[in-house]
Structures are given as structure tokens and as C-alpha cells.
Amino acid sequence: MDMRTEIPPGSLNLLILRSLARMGSMHGYGIALFIQQTTEDVLHVEEGTLYPALQRILLKGWVQAEWRVTENNRRARYYTLTPEGRKQLKVEIRQFELVMGAIRQVIEPA
Question: Distances in Å between the alpha carbon of 48 and those of 24, 32, 37, 82, 103?
Fold first, then answer.
């Protein structure tokens, strides 16, 4: 049985920012792999979703990026959390917890 599921709307920024906060500077494929492995293969971030999200948060100043060579000797863009990104991560976590609490109120028995 395939347990993969879609990433809940609005939570991709949270997952990216938290991954960078936990692991430090990473390239896009590394971020996607970290999310997949950390969630035990439940969440998969597709390239077509990940890279536009990284570009958006780069433009917002939540991450900075630089080109480097990977461990496989390939050129890749590495992303690093900025101080603004750390602040936004706290906002994203609060919003996520608020939404999860509201959902719990609906799905749990009275």
C-alpha cells in the first residue's frame, strides 16, 4: 500500500524552512530527500513544486542562495536560512499549530 500523500496546502514553506533550520545549508534535492526520509516516505516534494517555492522564499528574503559544487561534483544552488527566515519559521509553526488545533476540534469525538 502506497502511504504517500500530498503536502497539505500552505505547509511547503514550513517544511522547507524547518529543514534548513535543522540541517543547515542544502541544495533543493537535499531538501526534498530530507523531507521524504524524515516523514518515512509519506511526503514527497516534486521538483515542479519545490523549486518555485524556493524561488518565492528567496525573493522574500527568508533564504539566501549560492552556487556550489555538490559531493557528486555537480554544480547546485545551496539555500541557507536567513534571520528573516528564522522569524518566518516561527510564524509558520504558529499558523500550522492553530490550523491543526482547529482540525482536531472537528475530527475528534465530543
Answer: 23, 11, 19, 24, 28
| 13-47 core/surface letters (b: 16 or more CB in 10 A; e: else) | bbbbbbbbeeeeebbbebbbebbeeebeeebbbee
CATH architecture, domain defined by 12-107? Orthogonal Bundle (1.10)
Nearest to 45 by CA among 26, 77, 54: 54
pLDDT digits (tens, 9 = 90+) for 76-94: 999 999 999 999 999 999 9
Domains of the chain, residue spans: 12-107
Element (H or E) spanning 78, and its range? strand 75-81
CA 32/CA 76 separation, integer angstroms: 14
